[in-house]
């Protein structure tokens, strides 16, 4: 946040997405080739060298330190106070609560379906790992293209539209994993979703970076990450039993749900998991669309001033943020 002008935050997020997607494709291929040449010992040495390069890079690159303001200048704070600060800061601003609620809801809903991604593909293809690998490769290629797109474009001027509409479109797109029964449909869906995700996530990240003062971003972003993902373990724990005990039996030939949804996702092994994809995809559309119904979320970029437009210390002067 302190190394770039705020206009470039979206592009920077796109570059990060590009690097992550590229490494996800290149690293397994490179590791497979290296394993046959230098063995596991050589790979471990190379792994250590990459850590050294990363650490040295951080040591030699100048990262501007944000100037301490407000209560950051009052002296030592306890770990408990620092931990609570992010919650107080976010909950004092309804727009941030609303934006965070969109991601909390989306992560919770889509975790139900994507937990079943590999089992569903394998069940519907007779354990064909080549098809599964091909679809996963489509995810990676789409991520690279999406990262390049976001790096070059930087996202729309009104980034909240990319967040709300993007989340709704991505959720709708996951329905095609359920309705599809072949590699072309699954691969195209994976590719399209991953093109959109860097734009969605990069736009959200840019909003937070622009609105939150750099000197408190660490504490606020840690809370943001925790709250956005806190419901995922619940959905992960529930999805397996839900699929095995309810949806899969119900979508077998003669099952209780087969007459109703058989025309949409078929019947037999994997159909119950496919139905979960469709239902969760449709449900996942709601958080993004509902965000438009609330002025605090829809106009977050107008309601919360940019951090560089706020006088020094103003970020910490709100009475309900005082410890």
- The chain-level mean pLDDT equals 89
What is the H/E string?
HHHHHHHHHHHHH
Radius of gyration: 22 Å
Please count the helical segments: 13
Q: What structural category arises from helix and sheet content?
A: mainly alpha
Instruction: State which percent range the strand residues make up.
Output: under 5%
Features:
disordered C terminus, globular, 323 residues, mainly alpha
Walk me through the structure.
This protein has 323 residues and is an all-alpha fold. The protein has one domain (6-321): Growth Hormone, Chain: A, CATH 1.20.1250. Helix content is 74%, strand content 0%. The radius of gyration is 22 Å and the shape is globular. The model is unreliable at 311-323 (pLDDT under 50).
Gist of the model:
This protein has helices at residues 9-60, 79-91, 94-114, 117-124, 129-153, 159-179, 183-211, 217-229, 232-250, 258-265, 271-291, 295-298, 300-303. The chain is an all-alpha fold and 323 residues long.
